[in-house]
């Protein structure tokens, strides 16, 4: 725990230093801000790429081992059903909270932001035009496992891993045991790597934060203060709802869980990547006492289907853009939008800036000018910090809850 606290302190210090250094460059050396931002961002890039390097093999090995070890197909079905019920309920609650609060707080009516040129949103608009049911299916089902590995398509890896794990579980121990043992050893080896990679986290945090502040300065906080305030208030309500449910299921152990995942939460907040903390989250949930079979089954699924922060943001941002353009939407239209977002968002895990792509597609569908996405692009990084952290919390709670329901939550902490 001493080492963990050192890393946590190092990350907090790096966060503060990043804001200070970025602010100094923006104020004192504005002509160098762009090149400085480009160079220091490489620290964040190194950290993210180190983590991305191990995600595909870790998801594949842990999920195959987790399912194959279950050997009981009924148990796989039972655990999967409980997980999906949690995911769907949490998604609906997240979308509904976003919808309710954006209508109540009306940040689009208050801020009176100027309508910006859509050039900054051009790339996203192009990306979203191809969104269709065909792309949705292609995104879920892998054409090649190696292609899925190469592009870190977590959802495709999950689909293959589940099928392979079920096949191994049905082959009998004589055939499957050597393969399971090999994958188990590989998974433990990768988890060992996690410990080394996490010490790059403070540098990654420093680079990511300094780059954003150097480019945009502190003004960005003032210009969008109301939008950020309302969005983070809505996130706070979502956190209260998630933690309340977590407390009802886990009792006082909820506080132990929060203490264990404080590092992953902070890294996700600083780097805007819930993906970056996946390996560390696996480790901490197992240390918390969750059964490793349940963790390795639920967590990869959660990263594909249980993005609570992103879900809430999608309704919040879509209605915000409508408010900016003075477009009034009926309750019926908003409920329809909620259901559309519920469905379309389930196949976009792993897509860069996935929430924004879905928002653009949804705006087009409901007659809201999709160019309005340009309004929120400058502060999307800061919103992404909050939603990434919320995604991590939601998945940690989902895994712990399913472990508890299965009677697989160890009271004194589990072993890796």
UniProtKB/TrEMBL annotation:
Source domain of life: Bacteria
UniProt-annotated location(s): Cell membrane
InterPro entries: Na-dicarboxylate_symporter, Na:dicarbo_symporter_sf
GO biological process: dicarboxylic acid transport
Membrane-related topology note: Multi-pass membrane protein
Gene Ontology molecular function terms on file: symporter activity
GO cellular component: plasma membrane
Keyword annotations of the record: Cell membrane, Membrane, Symport, Transmembrane, Transmembrane helix, Transport
Keyword Chloroplast in record: no
Transmembrane feature ranges: 7-27, 47-71, 83-105, 154-172, 193-214, 226-250, 319-344, 356-379
SUPFAM superfamilies hit by this protein: Proton glutamate symport protein
Protein name: Cation:dicarboxylase symporter family transporter
Organism this protein belongs to: Chryseobacterium endophyticum
Phylogenetic classification of the source organism: Bacteria, Pseudomonadati, Bacteroidota, Flavobacteriia, Flavobacteriales
């Amino acid at each position: 725990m001493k080492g963990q606290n050192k890393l946590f302190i190092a990350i907090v210090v790096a966060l503060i230093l990043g804001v200070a250094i970025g602010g100094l460059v923006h104020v004192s050396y504005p002509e160098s801000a762009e090149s400085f931002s480009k160079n220091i961002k490489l620290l964040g890039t190194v950290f993210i790429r180190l983590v991305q390097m191990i995600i595909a093999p870790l998801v594949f090995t842990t999920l195959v081992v987790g399912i194959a070890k279950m050997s009981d197909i009924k148990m796989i079905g039972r655990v999967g059903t409980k997980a999906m019920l949690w995911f769907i309920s949490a998604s609906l609650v997240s979308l509904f909270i976003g919808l309710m609060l954006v209508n109540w707080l009306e940040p689009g009516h208050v801020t009176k932001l100027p309508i910006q040129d859509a050039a900054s949103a051009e790339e996203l608009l192009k990306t979203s035009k191809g969104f269709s049911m065909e792309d949705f299916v292609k995104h879920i089902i892998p054409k090649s496992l190696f292609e899925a590995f190469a592009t870190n398509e977590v959802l495709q890896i999950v689909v293959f891993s589940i099928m392979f794990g079920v096949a191994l579980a049905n082959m009998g121990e004589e055939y499957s045991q050597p393969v399971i043992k090999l994958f188990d050893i590989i998974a433990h080896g990768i988890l060992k790597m996690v410990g080394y990679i996490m010490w790059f986290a403070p540098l990654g945090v420093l680079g990511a934060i300094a780059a954003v502040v150097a480019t945009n300065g502190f003004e960005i906080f003032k210009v969008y203060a109301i939008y950020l305030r309302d969005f983070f208030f809505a996130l706070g309500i979502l956190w209260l709802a998630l933690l309340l449910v977590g407390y009802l299921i886990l009792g006082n152990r909820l506080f132990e869980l929060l203490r264990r995942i404080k590092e992953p939460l902070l890294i996700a907040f600083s780097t805007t990547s819930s993906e970056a903390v996946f390996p560390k989250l696996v480790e901490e949930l197992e240390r918390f006492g969750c059964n490793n079979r349940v963790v390795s089954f639920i967590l990869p699924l959660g990263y594909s289907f249980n993005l609570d922060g992103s879900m809430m943001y999608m309704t919040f941002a879509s209605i915000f853009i409508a408010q900016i353009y003075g477009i009034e939407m009926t309750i019926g239209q908003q409920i329809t939008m909620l259901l559309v977002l519920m469905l379309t968002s389930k196949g976009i895990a792993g897509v860069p800036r996935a929430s924004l792509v879905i928002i653009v597609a949804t705006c087009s569908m409901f007659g809201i000018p999709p160019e309005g996405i340009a309004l929120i692009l400058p502060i999307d990084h800061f919103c992404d910090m909050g939603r990434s952290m919320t995604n991590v919390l939601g998945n940690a709670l989902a895994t712990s809850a399913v472990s508890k329901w299965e009677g697989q939550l160890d009271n004194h902490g589990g072993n890796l």
